[in-house]
Amino acid sequence: MSIDKxxxxxxxxxxxxxANYLLDNYAKIGLNSDELVLYLQFKRFFDRGINxxxxxxxxxxxxxxxxxxxxxxxxxxxxxxxTIKTGQDQNGKDFDQxxxxxxxxxxxxxxxxxxxYQPVTDSSQxxxxxxxxxxxxxxxxxxxxxSIEREFGRELSPIELETISGWLDQSHYSPELIELALRxxxxxxxxxxKYIDRILINWEKRHVKTAADVEKELNRYQGKRNPQPxxxxxxxxxxxxxxxxx
Length: 246
Known about the structure:
The chain is mainly alpha-helical. The protein has helices at residues 3-13, 20-25, 33-46, 55-62, 66-78, 101-112, 120-130, 138-152, 158-169, 175-187, 193-205, 211-222; strands spanning 83-88, 94-99.
C-alpha cells in the first residue's frame, strides 16, 4: 500500500479524542486496562454517531471473545462506571444503549478531591458486607451466569447480565435460589429472565430463601390430600416447584 493510500485511509477512518486526565487516572477510578481498551472501542463508535456498537466488530478489533466483552461490561456496571438501557430504533426494534456518564462523574469527583480518592471497590465491598453478601464468591456468581446460559442455549446479553446482577446485589437472592428458580422455569419450558424474576418475587412473598425452604414447601403440599388454592398475593406468580431437591 502506498503512503498516499495509507494517509487517505487514516483520514477516512477519522480520529478519536481521549482526555489525558482519563489516561492518567483511569486506575484510580477502578478501571483496569481491558476495561479502558473496551471503553476506547465504544468511544470510537460513539464519535461516528453509532450509539449501539456491534459487539462482534469490537471483538474482531480487540481479539477479545464476545462473551468476555459481555463480562467486562458487567464488571463496569458492578463498579458503577457505566449503565445500559434498552432503546428502540425507527422500526421498533430494541437495541442496547451504553452510557459512560458515571465514569466521568467519578473522574470529576477525583478532580475535586485533589487526587485523594478511595477506590470504587472499597465502597462496594463495604456495601456488600453491610448486606451480608461478602461471602459471595466470584465462582458462585460465574456459576449462575453459566447455568442460565447453558439452559437458554445462548450467551446472555448485557441487559440480562445487569438483571442477574440486580438479583444478586440488590435483591440479595442467593445463587442457590436463582438456580432453583431457573430449574422451575426450565421445567415449564420458559426460557426468559422475566419468568424467573416472577418466581423469585413469588418465593420472596412466601419467605422462601433456600433449598431447604423449597423442600419444606414441597413436604407441606404433599402432606395435604386436598390442598387449598393460594389466596391473596400468592396467586400473582408461579407456584413453588414440585420436585425433590438433590
